[in-house]
Amino acid sequence: MARKRRGDRVDGWLVLDKPAGISSAKAVAIARRAFNAAKLGHGGTLDPLASGILPLAFGEATKTVSLVMDGRKTYRFTLRFGQQTDTDDTEGAVVATSDNRPTDDEIRSVLPRFTGTIQQTPPAYSALKIDGKRAYERARGGETLEIQPRQIEVFRLALTGRPEPDLADFEVDCGKGTYIRSLARDIALALGSVGHVAALRRTQVGKFSEKGAISLAKLEALGHIPARFEHLLPVETVLDDIPALAVTEEEATRLRMGQPLQMLRTGFSDRVPPMSDSTALMRAMLGDRLVALVRNQDGEIRSVRVLNP
């Protein structure tokens, strides 16, 4: 007997504005219940401390999550000088203090060190896996961790305000794998002080921004009324920048079955969009329907992700 699927099929993206104080997992669970969705994932975890954009992928959109995870992200954060914590945010225990409070000019002078391709050591209390176990689980168990630095990309980093001598506000555009808690920690250390993240908000993830986002409170208030679906965006929303390859019904069927399409077939290569990278992803489209994400591999168009109709 076939296993009955729990929940309804729901496909698309929801741009959720997560409030501070709850985990991303809890926010996902609330959204799943709101839509009674059978399948739901998200495009990048936010710490409980943080608020802001948490893109949720329903159903077939889960097959495009990696494209969102690899996109640029924008954060606003507040660095509190004078106290370093073991979590690099307000939830941890104080492990070091400093009386040094840098000036605005001193802060701006060190920011170029943290722009571009740089090395960054993730926080001990992070979801990073070390020998198959989350770093925060090991840290909570009393282990002293040696976490290796990783290469990250910071495209823009700016000081945006000084509410008081202990606090400095920043905005940053960065790539995949950047820890804002580590960035704040390292800026303070570079200034001869110590510090931690006092507030954090993510304002953009790839194409998703605060514009058009729905708050968790509003989503819960909508309950199960049809209006909640008005906030769902098509799966294709994250694929606008990926070239489209028009396919026939027969070709669409072959791709769905995992069978390759030969580039040398008469007239087929003329439909392949010109690209600087011949192995880059393409959208196989049957009319206005997304069939699959495909790639040219040695003269064959092969499915990377098949989308169910």
Overview of the structural elements:
- The chain folds into three domains: 12-71 and 207-238, 2-Layer Sandwich (Pseudouridine synthase), CATH 3.30.2350.10; 73-205, Pseudouridine synthase (2-Layer Sandwich); 242-306, PUA domain (Archaeosine Trna-guanine Transglycosylase, Chain: A, domain 4), CATH 2.30.130.
- It is built from seven helices and 19 strands.
- The protein has helices at 24-35, 65-69, 104-110, 135-140, 180-190, 216-222, 249-256; strands spanning 12-18, 40-42, 51-58, 73-81, 83-85, 94-97, 116-120, 129-130, 133-134, 150-164, 167-174, 195-205, 208-209, 214-215, 244-246, 261-262, 282-286, 289-297, 300-306.
- The strands form four sheets. Strands 1, 2, 3, 4, 7, 10, 11, 12, 13 and 14 form a ten-stranded mixed sheet that branches. A five-stranded mixed sheet has the order 15-17-18-19-16, with helices on one face. It has a two-stranded antiparallel sheet with strand order 5-6.
- It is globular, with a radius of gyration of 23 Å.
Number of helical elements = 7
Give the structural class: alpha+beta
Distance between the termini: 24 Å
CATH superfamily of the largest domain: Pseudouridine synthase
Radius of gyration: 23 Å
Number of domains: 3
Largest sheet: 10 strands, mixed
Shape: globular
Number of DSSP E strands? 19
The share of residues in extended strands comes to: 25-35%
Show unreliable segments.
Answer: none
Task: Give the rounded overall mean pLDDT.
Answer: 88
